[in-house]
Design goal:
The protein contains 12 helices and no strands. By secondary structure, it is mainly α. The N terminus is likely disordered.
């Protein structure tokens, strides 16, 4: 019997090792916080979420604890799907190490760029919006998976990849400019949407650098 037919599960797990690990961690975090059946409670948000001012109070671990937690409820299934798909595509196209580096690298860079190069200067200059954004506490893997999607568009044929990249970037820009439905969620939405706008082209840049060096 052909070995590739005899052991397909092990080959599939090996091919998508990082995807399986992240998916397992994501599901365990959901079970622990009950976000697979309900929205994230304020207690869990305060305990695990990330806010820009955490960086200057040396709570850098929140860059990691916030990633696998979602707001849950009706958004859980869509986030789970795009999370798994985006990481899996990069791992299929470029391998486990590059998928790991892309997801975590883009996530961390996005949070640092947004917090230290955009929000902190606005806060220091005395803009009330900048000060408000330093306190926004958020959760979710969206920066990482948008980075992975950006990486994937760079690996597509040039015209197709550019078209898809421009289309998604346009949607992200429109979404960022669209106000939140509830006033109390405006700063949180602004923070998250800005992160997406940074992460998506950053993932494409990572793919270009990887191709140049590789």
């Amino acid at each position: 019997m052909n070995k590739s037919i005899r052991h397909p599960p092990s080959k599939l797990i090996g091919k998508f090792a990082f995807t399986w690990v992240m998916l397992s961690a994501f599901l365990m975090a959901a079970l622990g916080t009950q976000t697979h059946i309900q929205t994230l409670t304020p207690r869990w948000l305060e305990r695990l979420g990330f806010a820009p001012h955490d960086l200057w109070f040396w709570r850098w671990e929140r860059l990691f604890t916030s990633v696998l937690i979602t707001t849950g409820g009706q958004l859980f299934a869509p986030v789970l799907g795009i999370f798994t798909f985006s990481i899996g595509v990069v791992e299929w196209l470029a391998g486990t190490k590059r998928a790991m580096a892309t997801f975590w690298g883009v996530h961390l860079l996005t949070m640092l760029i947004e917090s230290l190069l955009i929000i902190l200067p606005l806060h220091r200059l005395g803009y009330p919006r900048g000060t408000a954004l330093t306190l926004v506490r958020d959760v979710g893997p969206s920066a990482g998976y948008f980075g992975c999607l950006g990486f994937a568009t760079q690996r597509l044929p040039a015209r197709l990849g550019q078209f898809i990249h421009s289309f998604i970037l346009g949607i992200l820009l429109i979404n960022w400019l669209t106000p939140a439905l509830q006033a109390e969620e405006h700063d949180t939405k602004f923070f998250a949407d800005l992160a997406h706008l940074i992460a998506f082209p950053l993932g494409r840049l990572v793919a270009r650098i990887d191709r140049t060096l590789g």
